Amino acid sequence: MPMGEFHVANTGNYTFWRSTMRSSSFDIKQTIFFLTFLSFTLLSCVSVFEPVTRDRLDDKQLRMVQYYVSSAITLTRVIQAGERATVSYGIVNLADENRREQRRISSSFLTKTPGVLVGVLNSYDKEWLLISFEDDDNLFLPFFRHNHRFVLASHIADWPNTQYGGAIYRISYFGEQTPYLLARTRYTFRETSSINRVRGRRVN
């Protein structure tokens, strides 16, 4: 093969290699810039679930908050259907039939049950928030203010039985700590800067 042809082909390959390297370098710079921008954005705006505190919110803001619970709450009700009698092979069979109904308010990170404020009470020298996790405002749970948190009212009479929509339910929850109200809190970090050119000062 003539040397001239080999030289032309080699030059073409070199030109293509340089073009490819420049394109790759540009893509890497774009990727680094994007990751830097994304990291800055995530760090400047952080969203977490924190206890609801009264000192941060006024009465109007309390009604605008989406509420959650720190640990799962289960309400259980046993409905007695009564005695049922059947006869088979000449024998009378009597059976008591009960139906167990449960309502569960989840605290899982991915499936937190949202609730809204349907009432505020001030009694027994305490402030109470009535939170409903269902479409009916009569289905609510009371949380009272205790040590800067709103805690499920576990000290009421007949506990763990409570009135829930006119029916008696038994309340249970996971763990030893009484559930308290949470709200999603977003922290935004902002910093502004200014540069003033100092003109200096001369001797009189």
Structural overview:
- The chain folds into two domains: 3-45; 52-188, no CATH class.
- It has helices at residues 3-44, 59-62, and strands spanning 45-51, 67-69, 73-88, 91-105, 116-123, 126-132, 141-146, 149-152, 161-164, 167-173, 181-188.
- The protein is an alpha+beta fold.
- 11% of the residues are buried.
- A four-stranded antiparallel beta sheet has the order 4-3-10-9, with no helix packed on it. It has a four-stranded antiparallel beta sheet with strand order 5-6-7-8, with no helix packed on it.
- The longest helix is centred in the N-terminal third of the chain and has 42 residues, at 3-44.
- The chain is 23% helix and 42% strand.
- The protein has two helices and eleven strands.
- The protein is elongated, with a radius of gyration of 34 Å.
Total beta strands: 11
Helix proportion range: 10-25%
The rounded distance between the terminal residues' Cα atoms is 85 Å
Alpha plus pi helix count: 2
In N-to-C order, the SSE pattern is: HEHEEEEEEEEEE
Q: pLDDT under 50 segments (min length 5)?
A: 1-9, 37-43
Rg measurement, Å? 34 Å
* Most strands sheet: 4 strands, antiparallel
Proportion of residues in extended strands? 35-45%
Q: What class do helices, strands and sheet pairing give?
A: alpha+beta
Q: How many structural units, i.e. domains?
A: 2
The global form is elongated
| Spatial strand arrangement across the major sheet | 4-3-10-9
User: What is the average per-residue confidence, as pLDDT, rounded to a whole number?
Assistant: 79
